[in-house]
Design brief:
The protein is α/β, with parallel strands linked by helices and 188 residues long. Helices cover 46% and strands 22% of the residues. It contains 6 helices and 5 strands; from the N terminus they run E-E-E-H-H-E-H-H-E-H-H. Strands 3-2-1-4-5 form a 5-stranded mixed beta sheet.
């Protein structure tokens, strides 16, 4: 039986990623956390957008965003290290596995390992807590984009909370007042 050698934290870069998706608005958000070095340096980020087609696509984008951040901003720091990506979406892990070799070639890391983390387990271990942190970041980002979509939809329907009615509503009301004063009851 092969014996596993324990890697030191200085040899590993841990990446946790999660996403949140709203099917009614197609808004999505992501959050990721990167842990690197000894002493451990932690970086957390979130973002999102609208027009996502599924929660699995959102989860894949969360992992891609994290890996892209590593590639663009941290390549010198991660060169030669093992990257361990942890996500609660098996579909995202399978999809990203196909892209791992390209990431290795671009950044010079020693390898990319993809691991599944159980989501919403309520456990107190570090993996669960970091996944929960990413989940909260993703939820907040998704809520921001969902609010934008809802506001846009309300504006399209002519619902302007606390503001004057749109111009065509005021014109119609004025027309009704004029017709009523002339003794007519209908607006054509």
């Amino acid at each position: 039986m092969a014996r596993k050698t324990k890697m030191r934290m200085s040899d590993v870069v841990l990446v946790y990623a999660d996403a949140s998706y709203c099917s009614s608005t197609a808004a999505w958000g992501y959050g990721y956390c990167i842990l690197v070095g000894e002493p451990v340096m932690r970086k957390t980020y979130s973002g999102g957008s609208i027009y996502c087609v599924s929660s699995q696509q959102a989860e894949m984008m969360a992992v891609r965003e994290a890996l892209d951040f590593l590639r663009v901003h941290m390549t010198p720091m991660i060169r030669g290290r093992q990257i361990e990506v942890r996500s609660d979406c098996l579909g995202a892990i399978a999809a990203i596995r196909k892209e791992a070799q390209e990431f290795i070639d671009l950044t010079g890391v020693s390898g990319v390992a993809l691991h599944h983390v159980r989501s919403h387990s309520g456990r107190r271990d570090a993996h669960s807590q970091l996944n929960y942190l990413c989940h909260c970041l993703a939820k907040q980002a998704m809520a921001k984009y969902r609010a934008r979509v809802s506001k846009h939809r309300a504006r399209k329907r002519g619902r302007h909370r606390g503001k004057e009615a749109p111009e065509h509503h005021r014109a119609r009301k004025a027309q009704e007042v004029v017709l009523h004063s002339l003794g007519r009851s209908e607006v054509s």
